[in-house]
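Homework help board

Subject: predicted structure for assignment chain

Our instructor gave us this sequence and asked us to write out the predicted structure in token form, then describe one feature. I got the tokens but I'm not sure how to describe them. Can anyone check?
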Amino acid sequence: MGEPKMVSPAIYQLPLTPTSPLSSAAMSDAGGPIEEICSKDALATALHVIRTERDALTQLGGLYETNDIAQEGLANAVHAITTSVCSGGKLVVVGVGKSGKIGQKVVATMNSFGIRSAFLHPTEALHGDLGMIGENDTALIITFSGRTPELLNLLPYLPLNMALIAMTSHVNPSTCPLFESRSPHLSILLPAPIPISEVESFGVAAPTTSTTVALALTDALAMAVARRLHLDPSVVFQGHHPGGAIGLSHRASSLLSANSGNPSSVAV
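My token output:
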């Protein structure tokens, strides 16, 4: 037998910069200078994305205004996280891919409000990071499909007595694979559906509308927990955020307040 033929890896490589779908001549024939056509097309695309995501957020608001499952899920999620933090535990946020990026953001927001939180990557969890999970922790899993393999592989290793919050496109707990082997009273659904799939909206399955909805819902959850835990979340936030423009603004406001209470200290 002869040596097997080697397939060049070059055939699997995509161009770093995709070629334009229209040639210069075609774009000129389309009715205007190339730059003008490109600008109009870019604006139309951007507006379409903005309007699509706006509509998805409008639907999300309507869902939590009217749907019993969504309302119960939000109330139970706030209670579970609050209970964990008050018991010396924390919120463990789990996600992969773009949902993982949303998870990292909500961890940062929670921590800025004094809500102890940590991000757990599902693959790293199975290589030792499971050690970060404590006795009184609550888990928040962010996944649009609810059936991401990395997350399903992690589930058997999460404590069965741990409250599990799933933020997913499912609108009923009975259809969510994440809850199949979990106790119903410790399974909390936060529905985050979108009205039109991203493939149908944009022609590509890139997480866009779904991550915008997840971002808004995690922000809502963080604010709700902060208001449950603290009489004045703004004071806690300012204490944890001394840097950047926010910290500078707070120091300036504090100095102004101090000076207004002690006019003699104001420089002239």
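Reply (TA_rk): Your tokens look well-formed. For the description, you could write something like this. The CA atoms of residues 76 and 188 lie 7 Å apart. That's the kind of observation they're looking for.
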